[in-house]
Design brief:
The chain is of the alpha/beta class. The protein is 45% helix and 14% strand. The strands form two sheets. Strands 3-2-1-4-5-6-9 form a seven-stranded parallel beta sheet, with helices on both faces. Strand 7 (252-253), helix 8 (261-267) and strand 8 form a beta-alpha-beta unit. Helix 1 (3-23) packs antiparallel against helix 2, helix 1 packs parallel to helix 8 (261-267) and helix 6 runs parallel beside helix 7.
Length: 311
């Protein structure tokens, strides 16, 4: 994405948040929540990069994922990076993937500096089946064992717009990255999980896939489809020891969108818990679902949104 395009989208976003707050419009606030929901950018001037760089702090020495191999897509920045770092702190061998070798190396170096184990595979999830299979093969080889935990975090988000203005290219790109890629990657890795005694798949959903929000139908439809895959895969794979669940973040404050902090904090006042989400909030939910603490949990959608979906 070019800098000018991102700046223009950012100006529009700020204005939409301000309008929603000034109008005290509950429906408009919900729309802004979807706009601010985290997603990874997979290139192109039309993408709105909301999944920003943020390093989680704190952690635990519980080692709930000790010795397991985890692959996190879209993990060179934002929530994906936070999830990868949190999994490493829990003892997992983490495979980071996304676009940009330099950013990937930074994530890996940070994890290793903290005593964790991590590797990077650069991959473009819009590249089709051959690219997905290559990612799966290289991730498994680098981990030195079958992938135990797959986090389908990467997503492609276009700016909000009327459905009559969606282009065929946008439709193809959103469905390619948000539906086809996680479908093929999961299908490629699940046999290894089953052969190895089980595993966990966690899909990164969105509150926009639960509620109908105007101007976000394309992204919302892709996330609703991912939620549906979670339920179907859970029903299909539970008997084989593979658990499949969804985490659905609300607006999440990261270092790169810190300029929106005052607006986000005001927006959060419409939530039952009255605070803005952090990368660590979502990472904690993912760790829980990936661990044996959630051994009897299949097919759930876990919102990490301060209660936004409850009202």
């Amino acid at each position: 994405m070019n800098g000018g395009g991102e700046e223009r989208h950012g100006d529009v976003l700020v204005q939409q948040v301000q309008d929603a707050l000034e109008a005290s419009d509950h429906y408009l606030l919900k729309q802004v929540f979807v706009i601010l929901a985290p997603a990874s950018n997979y290139g192109g001037d039309s993408a709105f990069h909301v999944d920003r760089h943020h390093r989680t702090t704190g952690g635990t020495d519980m080692n709930r994922l000790e010795g397991r191999a985890a692959l996190v897509t879209g993990s060179t920045s934002g929530i994906g990076r936070g999830v990868a770092e949190a999994m490493a702190r829990e003892g997992a061998i983490v495979v980071v993937t996304g676009l940009g070798a330099e950013r990937g190396a930074q994530v890996v170096d940070g994890i290793v500096a903290e005593g964790g184990i991590a590797h990077f595979v650069e991959a473009d999830l819009s590249g089709g089946g051959s690219e997905i299979r290559r990612l799966a093969q290289e991730a498994t080889a680098l981990a030195g064992r079958p992938i135990d935990v797959l986090v389908n975090n990467a997503a492609y988000l276009v700016p909000p717009h009327p459905m009559t203005e969606s282009t065929e290219e946008q439709i193809d790109q959103v469905l390619e990255v948000n539906i086809k890629a996680p479908y093929l990657l999961t299908a490629t890795l699940v046999p290894g999980m089953v052969e190895n005694g089980g595993g966990s798949v966690i899909n990164m959903g969105s509150i926009g896939g639960v509620e109908g929000i105007k101007f976000t139908s394309l992204y919302g439809a892709s996330k609703a489809g991912l939620h549906s895959l979670t339920r179907s895969w859970a029903a299909e794979l539970a008997a084989d020891g593979v658990r499949v669940n969804t985490v659905a973040p609300g607006p999440t404050l990261t270092e790169s969108n810190d300029e929106l902090r005052p607006l986000l904090e005001k927006l959060a006042q419409s939530n039952p818990d009255r605070r803005t989400g952090s990368v660590q909030d979502t990472a904690a939910a993912v760790i829980f679902l990936a661990s044996e603490d959630a051994s009897h949990i299949h097919g759930v959608l876990l919102p990490v949104d301060g209660g936004a979906l409850a009202i």
